[in-house]
Amino acid sequence: MRYPTVADLVEPARRRIPYFAFDFLKGGTGDELSCERNYRAIREVELAPRYGGPISSVDIRATMFGRELASPVVISPIGMDGAIWPGATRILAATARDLGIAYMPSTMATASIEEVAGIAPDNAWFQLYAFADNDHDVSFDLVRRAEKAGAGVLALTVDIPSPPRRVRDMRNGLLPKMKLTPEKILAMLSRPAWLSAVAREGMPTLANIRPYCTPGAGRDELEAFVRNNKAGAGVTWDTVRRIRDLWKKPLLVKGIMHPADALEAVAAGVDGIVVSNHGGRQFDPSPATIDVLPAIRAAVGDKLTVLMDSGVMSGTDVVKAIACGADGVLVGRAFMYGLAALGTDGARHVAHILHEELRVALAQSGADTLEGARQLAVRHPGAWSLAEFGIQDV
Fold first, then answer.
1. The pTM is what?
2. Which of 67, 271, 294, 337 is deepest in the core (most CB within 10 A)?
3. Nearest alpha carbon to residue 362 among 374, 350, 353
4. Cα separation of 200 and 221, whole Å?
5. Closest listed residue to residue 150, CA positions, set 117, 192, 177
6. Active site residue 352
7. Average pLDDT over the chain, rounded to whole?
């Protein structure tokens, strides 16, 4: 009860990890307007509760891609998660397995998709960063590795046409590559819990990239591979179709912010999309994800599973996203705040917070279930209309 909300974990997280790791977690691109816009927009959504109806037991279970999950909360990909809290990828996989929710590790995670799927064989998804060089040889190999490992869902990220300018990371000497300075060494030495986790788990590394570098490659070579091969760039709708042909399980496109792109995804034959502005870490003028969600849902109807991320910090936020058109939500920063603040048990604590807040919100609204949440009356002052996207009819 000392940390009853995710927001309560932010300051303890800042105190327990080095400043550059905290800034990497919390920061966005440019002036970080998009980050704040995400949080503000979801706070401004209002739901009108209904009372006096029949009372049934609250049910937060969700079905996505033919599988029943304990809730609509999916643990989101976080690149270099092990630099924020050592061992994060494995901890998040175990949390998903034990609580019956899905986990989508990043291509840039610090444990491989093979290891994640070994820990959580029924709960592992995979987020793919494409590598366009050599006609996407590495991209397609990563797809094959995810399939062989047993990942249940693949999500191709499309919103990284070029590297962003993350000013905090630039000021902290993390870009274009990390420079070890006396200031950073002192920061690490002043965080004994983090140092102890490093000693236990080892230095974080880009585990999924290692097969494409020389044997025994160190951090510099792995980061150079990612940088030189422009990870995430070079994705076209033809790329999506080629991956669709290769990947026979459910396929998502992650990073959709425009209804026309959502309709392109439908035409490409994917199974779902993630409405996402990358947590405010790519394009600072982008709208809040929840503000474009209703128009995107209106455009695709029931043709796709629609997930949303960016700005979700509570179970009430989850209900708002469902009411505005999402089938589920991806949550990343919140889980990492939990790990940074509380260590190994932090991710589980965050999941319990989100699930309990979700149950309370469904009960208090009179919705009882996720389907009931979709029927709630919504006042959404920031919502974009289809006409504002230049779309008159779908």
1. 0.97
2. 337
3. 374
4. 23
5. 117
6. no
7. 96
